[in-house]
Amino acid sequence: MAQITVTLDANLAIDAMLLSGTKNPQEAVELVLRDYLARGRRTETRTGDAADGRRVSTDRRNVQEG
Questions:
Q1: What is the model's pLDDT at position 48?
Q2: Backbone angles phi, psi at 34, to 5 degrees
Q3: What is the pLDDT of residue 55?
Q4: Tens of pLDDT along 19-61?
Q5: Is the pTM of this model over 0.85?
């Protein structure tokens, strides 16, 4: 896997380490980012996306109230 170098503020790296429970800032940032991406995928799976034709229907019934 290719690796890149990213410069972060020390306070941000420390916050990521505290959130992830690691002692290595590189591992902490990687874990937080992986969790963020996984959470986004779970949300898309639950709600669908804009191209999901099943959740948008043009023939809605008009319900009369009262």
A1: 62
A2: -60, -40
A3: 57
A4: 899 999 999 999 988 988 888 776 666 666 666 665 555 666 6
A5: no
CA-to-CA distance for 35 and 29, rounded, in angstroms?
A: 10
**Cβ contact 31:13 at 8 Å:** no
With tokens 């191209």, the residue in question is 51
DSSP codes, the chain: ---------HHHHHHHHHHHT-S-HHHHHHHHHHHHHHHHHHHHHHH--TT-TTS--S--------
The angle, 0 to 180 degrees and rounded to 10, between the axes of the packed helices 10-20 and 25-47 is: 70
